[in-house]
Amino acid sequence: MQLSSVLASVLVLVVLRCEAGPHSLMTIKDNGYDNILVAIHKDVKEESKIVDEIQKMFQDGSTYFYQASRKRAFFRNVTILIPDTWQDKPEYETALRENYEISDIRVAPENPLYGDLPYTKQPGQCGDPGEYVHFTPGYVRDDPEVNREYKWGEAGRILVHEFAHLRYGVFDEYGMEEDENYPLFYLHGRRPRVTGCTTAVMGRYLTKTSFGRCQLDRNTGLPEKDCRFFPELKRNRAKASIMFYQFIDSVHAFCENKPQDRHHTHNTLAPNMQNKLCNNAGTWDVIKQHEDFTGSNNPARDISDTSPKFRLVYKRPVRRAVDNKVIKGKRVVMVLDMSWSMRKQNRLRKMTQAASIFIRDNVPVGTEIGVIGFHDNATILENLTIIESKTDAKQMSNRLNAALTKEGGNTAIGKGLLQAIDSLGKDGISPEGSIIILITDGQQNVEPYTWELFANRTLETAGVTVNTIAFGAQADDILEEVGKRTGGMSFYDSEAKGSTGLASALDRLGEELALEDSTEPSVQVNAYTVDLPRKDDTHDKSVFIDETIGKNTEFIFTYLEYGGISVVLRDPSGKTYTVGSPQYEHDEPVRIVRVSIPSAQVGLWKYTITNTATTKQTVQVDVKSRSRENSQPIRVRAWMSATNVDVQKARAVVYAEVSKGYAPIVNAKVVATVDRPQGDPLELELKDNGAGADNQKDDGVYSAYFTNFNGNGRYGVSAKVSMEDGKAGVKTAGSKASAAAYKDPSLAPTIVAVVSPLPSGITRATPGGAFRVTGANGTDLYPPSRVTDLKVASYSYADQTVTLAWTAPGGDLDYGTAASYTLYQTTNASLLTDLSQAKVVSKADVMFGHLDPLPSGSLQTVTIKVPSAGDDVEYAFALIARDGNGNTSPLSSYATAVMRTQSNDGLSMGAIGAIIGGTLGGLVIVCVTVIVVAKMMSKNKVKVLKAGNSSQVNLTIADSPREDMYLTPKPYLN
């Protein structure tokens, strides 16, 4: 197997997945990126310097970006969203579509895991866009205690580094102190190397705390834990790579595997995130396969002025001419199907219940909302009305029940959408930035069809966001495309037993609406359905209300048949709420029982549902709550990697993020339910183990590939979270993925994971949206996933053995169990690019353990005999996995071992002066007798370290703390 063929397969997947990701407004044309949205969080104190520094960052970054992209891209138009907590100014334009939740770059209070360190939220696969870049106000202002250029380099260069994460889905090329899967050093050529790219970067191995000689660990052959690589900042010769150390003066390019300039050559051996997640592809290899640059898109050209232009926008209330009232929130129109088919399976009643609950519970005060019904034509059921109080919402909710009883005729989706746009465009107000929620169960059969609206760009020109909910398997295929084209979300209620898709989708849209409106959204604690077949049948259940929620808690029970239900709710102290309690409300016309608790106690709430009808009653339970004062609630958010998946070419990934504010929740149990076109829903456990589809362990994002397709059509996803056995916790420290690297490694804080345990019993639920599948033909399409965490756990010189460990893949990517492994062994990792040069480890070589695959996600270990040991003996290992049909995984990441005999000893002068790879030529030692490291001990003192030992003296100088830390010549590569 040649490396080039492996890379080709990876890049195909990159191209096919580039549609995934958040709904950014950003576009590119003629090499310039437009509509880049920078949003300032409402809690950031007003200060003009923040806006000035954002503009300077983009000014400096655009020039560097144009060079780094090889004249193919620059920042042309940037929009800065000013929060409404700042004072309005005449120079601000009115924000329409812009809102914080869709921003590309956020200036917000710090994430406790990162502090002021810039980072990109990047949960996806190789080539998938990130969600946003996060800068803190202190970083943007460059506060004295932050001192950003001293720590991380020029802000414009950092912006380009993070933008590459965000737009192109590339990963960092350095190691991470906190993650053993991405070590700071690795072995190659019997010597320790620094994890990075390219191999031409000059620098030194020194201890982080004392700046002395690094010692080798005899068990691993790698430098001791305190050892760091200190790069040469000013006199380096390396040209790449930006995803390694963009702060080095000479670095201005991304690395690639077959470069025209050898100084851009990618280091495929380094065990970094880029190599492991992109199958050893260079960062430029991935970037040039992005849709922005494929084909003839944005070819290199000379551009004399790459300076960006800026718009400052501000969210202003809109005043209606008809009654002079002010619209403080979003503008929303629900477009509801009232065709004959909605009579089937109680669809109209279910939609009425869900829409009523949405208006009453989820629409924030200040929102303007209207309702359109459609069948042969479109009819206004509720004119656009400003919700000025919860009473207004309740009254509209009650009116909706009567309005939605007149179904009939065909399915005029296009007319419904046009009527919504027309309503939003009246009264002298633009529809741009408004939200449409479309619910339908059928195929459109009345003109204009939605593809006609696409052809005329009607929806795009109006600037509306359309969220779609497909009700049943026959709902029109075009719905996901409507959502995608307008930046909306799509959902699916399969109507399978137990499905809560419609109500949960509206709950999720309510959360998004509240977040866009900067109000506190509700949290879905649990949602499910239960059948009560006979009169007087009961259902007992409990739900845990944790300390982060409890405000305005709603227990909502909807039922379908005449005759009703009764509910008895008991709080943790034993108090009962039932018929006659002031908190208990039974809306018989809509068939909803609701118990409203303004301030719910922490603890277990129990309820009993009794069927009071003479026939079978299907009851849907929905428990929602809001955060307590001064508390951030635990939330779950689920999504799919793409809305359209051709399974012959691409892979579908299910994600769910569990968090408390910025802090991830780790060790939770997360189960996704996938509704399929045929048969029962399928459950899929999502994992946060850094293997398979999951790109980072313990980051609170739980992931899994979905491979069990049973036909083409629409699939829907939901996720439930439970915290069992006291294992789950809130992680408040211990992660730096997709973040900027420190220029001076000694400034980087020691990373120690801090996890605060959570009580058992906490649950959360959320829908994850819908996606359409093509190409499913029943064949076995997927090999086992690539093993990305192969490592040498230990070795024995005396026994001539090496113990390897890895996370087992599945038979279909990370699902099931693989059929077999082939483990390869060479004397040099470079030889693994051609497996014909490698030895296949046989069963006779296995001393302990075995090479039989374990179920996906299991930790697998094996101890093997190697031919010889000694200081000059190096071994490199990699493996592939096969399924029962012979489908083969990509080659795993590499693991290396040097069978040393000596005790811990300082690195030799050659090793101390070693550069990252050292494979591009011999080391030339130039005038190195004393290393002076400008590490400030006090205002005018630095440490002086001698190359031969770790003795220290003080030296008084007048250098600024931002001076180059190296004050004498260094070894370099020819």
From TrEMBL:
Residues passing through the membrane, by range: 909-934
UniProt key word Transmembrane helix: yes
Keyword Transmembrane helix: yes
Pfam families associated with the record: CLCA, VWA
Residues annotated as signal peptide: 1-20
UniProt keywords, alphabetically: Membrane, Signal, Transmembrane, Transmembrane helix
Listed SUPFAM superfamilies: vWA-like (SSF53300)
Domain of life: Eukaryota
Record protein name field: Calcium-activated chloride channel regulator 3A-1
Organism: Lingula anatina
Lineage: Eukaryota, Metazoa, Spiralia, Lophotrochozoa, Brachiopoda
